[in-house]
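User: Just a sanity check before I run the rest of the batch. Below are the structure tokens for the first item. I only need the designed sequence back.
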């Protein structure tokens, strides 16, 4: 027997084996049972999902509290500022002079008060002896009281002058980031003029608008779940629900407090905020039961012992199941794994 005849017989046996393997595989596929499920209504949580935007809980614009010229700016836009740090300096000659004058006035008032108190004490010793008239005694008492009040007024002027002097160094009310600078070095400022704006990174909140038809449900179960674009999610029941609606959108503004000191949260970031608006009954199927053909969504429904393609309209989806809005009724039977059924049909 030649080598070529051996090779021919080997190829024939191999082909025969493959054919038997395919036939057995098809047979197994045909005999594989198709798992089915009967359609029924199930109670599901009705989630309301809204767009939300993050904002800082602490955000402020620091304004000038005294007049003067800006002599130095220690921080600029996008700089991180610790709490209590000096943001900028304003000329303090005028305020320093006011403080010096207040100190001098206090010293003068103390001296006059000392003299008035001694005079009163001396008159009180002489008055019982008849050496001092009633008018002089009354005048001494009045001058002593006036001198005491003058000392108090002088001390108050020192407090005011000291406070005015501290206003020349503008401090950060909280730690955060500078977002806007309203003045330049060398510019003259007056009380009430904006200087720098910024926000704190310690805590953020999500702000959303809740339609009027859902506001009662939210008040009954005041809790939100906030989902960020990076996959992080936060649950919070610390809400501020505004008591009035927007006259144009007829929606209520809601602030959702997020955890403190959470990294990589910035004002202006978009998020999804959802809350429970009660429960409702709906049809939900496993994702495996759904088959897609372009824009068509369908399931395999059992009809007279056979599976037929049945178009459905779907609603909200999650990782495991999908909501069916129309196309199926309670009591219908469908295939749990649509693609397995389609594979079985192709193998026949």
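Assistant: Here's the designed sequence for the first item:
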């Amino acid at each position: 027997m030649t080598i070529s005849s051996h090779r021919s017989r080997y190829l024939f046996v191999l082909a025969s084996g493959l054919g038997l393997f395919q036939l057995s595989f098809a047979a197994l596929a045909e005999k594989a049972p198709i798992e089915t499920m009967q359609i029924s209504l199930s109670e599901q949580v009705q989630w309301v999902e809204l767009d939300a935007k993050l904002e800082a809980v602490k955000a402020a614009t620091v304004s000038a509290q005294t007049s003067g010229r800006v002599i130095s700016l220690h921080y600029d836009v996008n700089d991180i500022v610790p709490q209590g740090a000096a943001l900028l300096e304003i000329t303090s000659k005028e305020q320093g002079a006011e403080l010096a004058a207040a100190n001098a006035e206090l010293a003068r008032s103390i001296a006059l008060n000392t003299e008035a108190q001694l005079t009163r004490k001396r008159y009180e010793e002489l008055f019982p002896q008849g050496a001092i008239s009633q008018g002089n005694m009354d005048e001494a008492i009045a001058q002593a009281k006036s001198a005491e009040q003058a000392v108090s007024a002088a001390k108050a002027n020192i407090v005011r002058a000291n406070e005015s002097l501290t206003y020349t160094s503008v401090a950060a009310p909280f730690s955060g980031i500078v977002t806007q600078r309203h003045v330049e070095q060398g510019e003259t400022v007056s009380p009430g003029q904006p200087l720098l704006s910024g926000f704190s990174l310690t805590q953020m909140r999500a702000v959303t608008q809740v339609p009027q038809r859902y506001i009662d449900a939210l008040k009954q179960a005041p809790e939100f779940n906030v989902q960020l674009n990076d996959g992080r999610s936060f649950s919070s029941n610390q809400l501020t629900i505004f008591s009035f609606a927007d006259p144009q959108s007829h929606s209520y503004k809601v602030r959702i407090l997020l955890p403190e000191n959470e990294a990589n949260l910035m004002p202006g970031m978009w998020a999804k905020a959802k809350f429970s608006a009660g429960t409702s009954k709906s049809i939900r199927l496993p994702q495996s039961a759904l088959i897609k053909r372009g824009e068509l969504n369908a399931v395999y429904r059992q009809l007279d012992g056979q599976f037929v393609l049945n178009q459905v309209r779907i609603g909200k989806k999650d990782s495991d199941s999908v909501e069916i809005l129309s196309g199926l009724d309670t009591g219908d039977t469908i295939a749990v794994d649509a693609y397995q059924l389609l594979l079985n049909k192709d193998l026949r």
